[in-house]
Amino acid sequence: MYNIGGYNEAKTLAEAVTMLAESPQRKLIAGGTDILVKMQHQPVVEQELLSIRKLTELKKIEKREDGTLVLGALVTFTQIANEPILQESVPALVDAAISMGGPQIRNMATLGGNVCNGATSADSASTLFVLNARLHLQSAEGKRVIPIREFYLGPGKVDLKKGEILTEIHIAPEDYRGFSGYYLKFAMRKAMDIATLGVSVACKVKDGRFDEVRIGLGVAGPTPLRCTEAEAYAQGKMMTAEVFAEIARRALTSTHARTSWRASKEYREHLVEELTQRALKVALHRAGGVYHV
Amino acid sequence: MAYSVLGKSVPRVDAVAKVTGKAKYTDDLAGNNMLIGKVLRSPYAHALIKNIDVSKAKALPGVEAVLSYQNIPHIPFATAGHPYSLDPNHQDKADRLMLTDKARFVGDAVAAVVAQDELIAAQALQLIDVEYEVLEPIFSPEEAMREEAPLIHEDTPHNILSTFGYQIGDVEEAFSTSNFVFEGDYETSIVQHCHLENQTSFAYVDGEDRLVIVTSTQIPHIVRRIVGQALGIPWGRIRVIKPYVGGGFGNKQDVTIEPLNAAMTLAVGGRPVKIEYSREEAMLDTRTRHAFKYHLKTGISKEGKIEAIHISAISNTGAYASHGHSIASSGGGKFRFLYTPKSIKYEPVTVYTNLPVAGAMRGYGTPQIFFAFESHLDDIARKLQIDPLEIRQKNFVNIGWTDPISKNRVLSCGIRECLTKGQELIHWDEKRVRYQNQTGDKRRGLGLACFSYQSGTYPVNVELAGARLILNQDGSVQLQIGATEIGQGSDTVFAQMVAEVLSIPVREVHVLTTQDTDISPFDPGSFASRQTYVTGMAVQKAAEEVKAKLLDFVWGMTDIPVQALELIDQNVVYKDSGEVVLPLREVALQTYYDPNFAKPITSDTSNNARVNAMSYGVTFAEVEVDIKTGQINVLEIYNVHDSGKIINPLLAEGQVEGGVSMGIGYALSEQLLFDQKTGKILNNNLLDYKLPTILDTPKIGVGFVETEDPTGPFGAKSLGEPPVITPAPAIRNAVLAATGVAFNRLPLNPQRVFEKFRECGLLS
């Protein structure tokens, strides 16, 4: 049951921005897979909706000439999963897309919605952190660009200013070229579940050593996060069991796991250590690298 | 015996209706214009309701009525969907009000509104002011039984609902002479049915001033009785209609929303009112499976014979009795038919707590007791270094055994053959050797568990079943039964039985799938895996009666003696030669239109089944345990059943697959969690309650050992509930074999496995 106080559909981005500026109390709706669930649990609160689902300009995935990947905010998870450009360039994002929800949810849910919902468990988020994604936002006042790591402010809280719409997500060529990546979702079910822990890794190998390692975690703190200490340590290291173990140990220093009825802090931290290594091994395998046991 | 349609996988009679959307469920029939009823629930687990002020809610435009204990009947009633008992000592506990004056769990129904739409109803709920006096809540049965514990129901000392146990022989003496005595503690969790269709009903008063309730139930005739009792109105004034139902698993063998729905329509002058529970409500305020704690003590001889079993059990029934008193008792009763030690003592205690109400759920107390005992037996086998298979083989019941308490006799038993078949299917012997002494991060193991079950509830309840069969003008028949099709396939099985007896195609048997207490024959409903066995007897009887009347009619038409006649392929034929006497169609037409002898052929049969048949089976499971993450992966799982004659193999396989998948959830992931301080349920939704998806379910192997039970219709025994009983202990035993770690508490979810592995030193 929904208490919908008004519903408007914008036909263009310009129109959407204007309509939002006129009535900033309007809630944006795209795929609706998060907002409708929230609304259903608060039937007494009347909500006015502004739909952006018809904005075809935000539904594109493209690779620009300079190699920048541009994903419109309305790109669905199914679209991501099936897109050859992304399969080739950012396989971890494809892993994340496939791991999310079930087929019906993936058909409706949008990448922009997943990010703006602000959940630490958002399957796309840890990978977008690893890819240093840059978010393009637009309002009646103008445009701005913000790195995704600055966008997340707290649980369910993002830096979306009044009247702003997330329009595009950009990934620079230097953030994916030469990298191999993998997203490992650990959940209680193989589908239709939220992650107990999400681990996204990317690595570059040079002369049998890690040239660069990036680790992004979901549900290891109030927001998705990067394991900067572990990443710094990994650079230039040989790919040995000891190094993997040390990377995993250092990954823990970036986390702020807590005990909830879903999982204990101890278990989550144990998973961070174990699964960071597993994800890294898969990424390495994808890179054709050899892991020295 | 050779049959023509029995034993064949004929398509479900409702398959096309269901896949084309033509099958109408309660909500489809309700339409969009009814008044909507909604319930206000207590935020406290234990609280007296001092006052309810509904004035603001009533003043909201669009609100038609606001109900509370102050303005609806205040008659305590029992909700359990049991056949009524005339013996007051055997009647269910009448401890519930439609809207309570004392909240006994978070979610207890304290007030309700009827409004023009759902939104107004939801808004009106917020405007009801309830004044509570909060009391100390109790969530654990042990706490509840303390001398000084507050009483949840004032008339129930120590909060103990029941202690129906039994004793056969002298366990203490048997322990003293046993070579070995083992003890163990085992614990199961609260889980929920998660049927696809939530509880939904609508009610109105018709032109003849009768109260009509359309509801998604397993037990329409019982609903009629209980609504009558709860509202204090004559049972005959009530008409209950059960359309297509989207699953029940026992949760709809209980009366939940119907009495309140009736009170709602009466409050608005008989206008139609609908109640449709959300998933969150259905998981909170219908029924759950009882969590049990067991202490087991078992005496074994040096030959591996079980000499004595002493079972102490504590069952947490939650805030109201529902089926609680009989579930502990029933589980212990069905358990007796598998192994038959000289002495056995069962001491259950069923206790009220301030948690959601536990009631009937597929297996009815057996998944709990078999989890405990089959786990215990593997612990014993491990200590004695006996193959788990062998210790069971040494102790199985024999045909002819009579239960000293119920006097039920084992007249067919295929458990040994089930075990052998499962052993071969999973390659038990080779793999057990292969999986010895593993040390890696991923370890595999095999486990098994056996069960016994019954077909229906005799002699505990009256096992009545009604069937009405009418021969149509064209030689087809109409079949009406009081037993309810709720997805399990009973309508198809009944159609096959009729088709077999009358030698007509299944498509010529028109089964009325809707039960209507004004029209349908009396039958308490679908539960206790009783439909094929108990209702099947009535259906067989009705078909035999129609056949006899038909041949008798032909005798009158042709002067060929009835004993010379037979029905074959829609013809009346000479029994010996098979030569056609008359086509069935022609005879049927004559029964309606012969100027002198017309008399339509019908049968209106009721059968009181004063017998019971034991069904048996085993689960074999192979698991791979990820030591580092605590994840358990079921690689292979086989359920092999002795359910007597299998009437429809495809439907039977479907039952087994569904039950096994439910059992896997019980073993590994499902658990209704509550806040230890407030009693609030934390995960009453399908995101946080980990019901397995199809991707979490391995391919399920199904096997049958077809015995012929002399009491069952065509040799059939029960199958509905049995598949869910043993997957959990089989998986648990496989984990034990793989890791050496004995998990004695369900579910084996990764968090728990992690903790236990740490405790046992498998993880640093």
Topology (SSEs and partners):
The complex is a heterodimer of chains A (293) and B (764).
Chain A: E1 4-9, H1 13-22, E2 27-29, H2 35-40, E3 47-51, E4 61-63, E5 69-72, H3 77-82, H4 84-89, H5 91-99, H6 103-108, H7 111-116, H8 123-130, E6 134-139, E7 142-147, H9 148-151, E8 152-154, E9 157-158, E10 165-171, E11 180-186, E12 197-206, E13 209-218, E14 225-226, H10 228-234, H11 241-252, H12 265-286
Parallel strand pairs in A: 1-3, 2-3
Antiparallel strand pairs in A: 4-5, 5-10, 6-7, 6-10, 8-9, 11-12, 12-13, 13-14
Chain B: H1 15-19, H2 26-30, E1 35-41, E2 47-53, H3 55-59, E3 63-68, E4 102-103, E5 109-115, H4 118-126, E6 129-134, H5 141-144, E7 160-162, E8 166-168, H6 171-177, E9 180-187, E10 200-205, E11 211-215, H7 220-231, E12 238-242, H8 258-267, E13 273-276, H9 279-284, E14 291-300, E15 306-318, H10 324-335, E16 343-352, H11 366-384, H12 388-393, H13 415-426, H14 428-434, E17 442-453, E18 464-471, E19 477-481, H15 490-502, E20 509-512, E21 515-516, H16 531-558, E22 565-568, E23 571-574, E24 580-583, H17 584-593, E25 602-608, E26 615-626, E27 631-642, H18 649-668, E28 700-704, H19 727-739, H20 750-760
Parallel strand pairs in B: 1-13, 11-12, 15-16, 19-20, 27-28
Antiparallel strand pairs in B: 1-5, 2-4, 2-6, 3-5, 7-16, 8-16, 9-14, 10-11, 10-13, 12-21, 14-15, 17-26, 18-19, 18-25, 22-23, 23-24, 26-27
